[in-house]
Give the backbone structure.
Amino acid sequence: MAKAAKKKSDSGQLREQLVRLQREMDTFAYTLSHDLRAPLIHIGGFVDLLLQHAGPKLDERSRHYLQRIAESTYHMGRMVDDVLALSRLSRAEMHLMRLELKDLIKEVMNDVRGLTENRNIRWEIGELPAVVADPTLLRVAFDNLVSNAIKFTRRRPEAVISISSERVDGEAIIAIRDNGIGFDTKQQNRLYGVFQRLHSVADSDGTGTGLAQVLRILQRHGGRTWAESVPDQGATFYLALPDGGPAGA
Amino acid sequence: MKTFPYALLAEDDANSVHLFLAILARHDASLKTVHVENGAEALEYLQRRGRFQNRTPQLPAVVFLDLEMPHRDGIEVLQEMKADPALRDIPVVIIAGSPNESKMRRCYELGANSYVVKPVDFRRFSSFVTNLASFWLTLNEPPP
């Protein structure tokens, strides 16, 4: 067999293996998070019943301990549900269609309305292209990025959030830029990890799976995502979607 | 004589049953629930067979079905209920352990009247249980 042809079939096999491993990992994460929900509901439930039942007889410290258990259980529940959401994004059937990004952004703006109350935000929405994508998945990606931009500009008297796009070499590249607190570029490799929070709870209130979701969604579209930041001046998140949708879809 | 509506809860997990009943008792003791431990028992109860042959002739106003149960799961019970002219009209609420689109679609195709997912946060779980029971036992008019 010619060398080049062998190399090609090796990399094809490797690719298949990786796809299979990824699917096994997704199934494992899905099963685990599904199965952990019931015992978590039970812990939270019985702590609550115990507080009702014995609360008045307990001293303040014991009550405090029970409340700590309840809070930790609540936190773990959110983490489990976020892993579940992530594995469902990976397993969900893709329904690709041609969609106008500006219409999607309108829906996203509606989704995040709860976060913009009492905030002074200047939105700069540029020309946006039509793309071939799964509308539900892409909306989740933009929901995450836009809510991040809103959260991380919380301390600005005027937040400026812009969404713009350009077409480069067969890809639509969309940029979401904010003038928020940014992130430490040395920590860039942690940015898209699961349960990675680069900021304190005061600045970001999620469990840290938003960008992992964005990454997974872009991967499923055969696209790319990356970020740039100047700490304390802002961050820009990029999404690159291949023209015509994922290859071979 | 006026009969009071009650719910049939089919759930195999003892912890879940305990919490469900404790939450209801605390909220409103008039929301009556009969509990069976699996799908096979649910059908025995509904069809007045086996150890349930002498149960009250009144059918439940709603059946709360857990999806994952031994000895016939929730989907099998749903299927058999909807195929039985005597049971077909009883509203069936599927209680799922976590969100799952394909199972949800399957349940509605088979004629489920409602599909709900247990919230993992206990405060929300508590109102989930009381809302379910009060809606189906007090607001909803069961089939005659």
Notes: The first strand of chain A starts at residue 97 and ends at 100.
